[in-house]
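Re: that chain you flagged

S.,

Sorry for the slow reply, it's been a week of failed gels. I finally had a moment to sit down with the sequence you sent. For the record, here it is as I used it:
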Amino acid sequence: MLDELNPEQLAAAQHGDGPLLIVAGAGTGKTATLVHRVAHLIGRGADPRRILLLTFTRRAAAEMLRRVEAVRAATGDGRGGASERVWGGTFHAIAARLLRIHARDIGMEPDFTILDRGDAKISCTSPAQPWASAAAASASRRSPRASMSTPAASTPSCR
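Prediction finished late last night. Pasting the structure tokens below so you have them in one place:
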């Protein structure tokens, strides 16, 4: 599968340990290079849980992880499931995951609810318990694990 990469992409995918900065324009194969890089690292024995793969959309994140698994399978490294352990997702999803993991360290409960602008508008217009309708709407749309925090901790400021 590495034969589909050009020499520069191959060099990046097989780069040794340590950071590597890649600057390239649209359509130049950055995603393919990242996918092969992650597959290469896992194939060399890197712990997938120590790899962070960030992107801007859920669809792109899922596609990159799917492609990592496909590259690994095509190269005969079919231990399977390693890409599921990669920390892959959107910037927002990974930030929320980290906040949930470390919530108690910063005085929060891990089952907090994140309100978006629409939720905040709903909560600012609801006369009774403004936090309840927005948090319930957010929880039902986003995550089965999400639930309301205490009203005092989660009441948004309506300005």
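What I noticed first: The radius of gyration is 20 Å.

Talk soon,
D.
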